[in-house]
Known about the structure:
- With 486 residues, the protein is of the alpha+beta class.
- It has helices at 43-54, 66-87, 135-141, 147-151, 188-191, 196-205, 209-222, 256-263, 266-273, 292-321, 366-373, 381-397, and strands at 4-12, 22-26, 30-35, 98-103, 107-113, 117-122, 125-128, 171-176, 182-186, 229-237, 247-250, 325-329, 334-345, 348-360, 376-378, 406-408, 483-485.
- The strands form four sheets. A six-stranded antiparallel beta sheet has the order 8-5-4-3-2-11, covered by helices on one side. A five-stranded antiparallel beta sheet has the order 1-10-9-6-7. Strands 14-13-12-15 form a four-stranded antiparallel beta sheet.
- Strand 12 and strand 13 (334-345) form a beta hairpin.
- The longest helix is centred in the middle third of the chain and has 30 residues, at 292-321.
- The chain starts with a strand and ends with a strand.
- The relative contact order is 0.11.
Amino acid sequence: MTLTLRYAARSDRGLIREGNQDSVYAGPRLLAVADGMGGMAAGDVASNLAIAAMAQLDEDVPGDALVDALRGAVDTANQNLRDAVDANPALEGMGTTLTGILFSGSKLAMVHVGDSRAYLLRGDEFVQVTKDDTYVQMLVDEGRITEEEASVHPQRSLLIRALQGSDVDPTYSVRPAVVGDRYLICSDGLSGPVSDDSIAATLRDYPDPDECAERLLQLALRGGGPDNITVIVADITDQDIIEGRPVVGGAASNDRSIKDRIESTPATRASALTPRPASADSDDEDEPSDDPKRHHGRTLLLLGILVVLLAGGLFYGWSYTQSRYYVGVDDANQVAIYQGVPGKIVGLHLSSVYRTTDLHLGQLTSSDQELVKQTIPVGSLGDANQAVDKLRIDQVNGPGAPVGCQPSPSPSVGPLPSGAPTPSGGSTTATPTTPTGKPSGTGTAAVVPTPRGTGRTPVTPKPTTAPTTTTPSPSLPAAPSPSPSC
């Protein structure tokens, strides 16, 4: 029985990193992930060199030679790293992780160094088949910390083994190929923000490798995407399927030598005749795909622009309302000047009491009461003050009196007892004379005494213009009708 691999791969720089230092290769015989180490110089160069060396293995390799083939590729990768540093000392310190599977049809061999991971889902059993080459994992193995403490340890990303061009002893293993087995190889950009339980559930819930790889990538992005994210999902199947075109992603996608080799493989030629659904990673320039991260960034940008426009519109609208005033009545039925405009939006009142006057609603005329209840819109604060003054005038003189005029009392005319004090406070003062020429008093108005023996009541003569002589006419001013003085 011939077994084949059905696979899909994704690689994304995440939401924080400026570039992608991961590299990935997924083909009919080889699955490999390399993570250029963060904090080290030229991690993308290191991961690319490792994948370029591994890509040569994507061909038929006898089952008993799988480990030797992997060891030879790792040695080549290490030598290439050493040569790159010798040619360019600025690259000193670069390094990469490497986790790969070489498949022969009946068995598979695995190589592992660093903290990228390989998982196996067999039936309902989900296990991590690699062990992290990290400082915190060493502490866990020694019993000094727990797995839970290791997940939040500040030095959880500190590697104790990696490919750096120096001598290193990766972990090699061989296991049988079992139909139905599903393998996941990923960088810590997935295993960091996404829990093992979520990874296991996703591997179970998405039978199609391409959909599963996409879902895992989305989970990592939703988890914040703090690091580069690379995943390979591969199923071992006995179905008669055409081998798919190899997928290269991340930093390795720019390596022309890898692409040229891919174009010459039998799998590529076969897939060109019968194209399979695209499973290219999101960073592969030659195989465009929906990049969820780019869509996510574009969505955030558009949302940001909308928020700014909305905030600007709200600020302008609010500023405009607060430049307006109106006269209304408050809860205590007092006439008040309001700043803003009547009404409210989503429970937010668009006005507030600026000043409460001493006018009560019940003191106003009926027509003014209705106006105030419906509010009197004005433009400025000065206009609002004038509207209140108008209400005061209407309160005393009735509707229609000009704003700014105040009523003045009118003197009354009538007989006054001899010697009685005259009213004070008029606008006109007259000093009439008696028939003998003696003044009878001073004040705003005076009366002419009745001549003896006539029996007639006093008569108010028509007002005359005061003479310029020192002796005024014995006439009295006429009683004016009430009128406002302006």
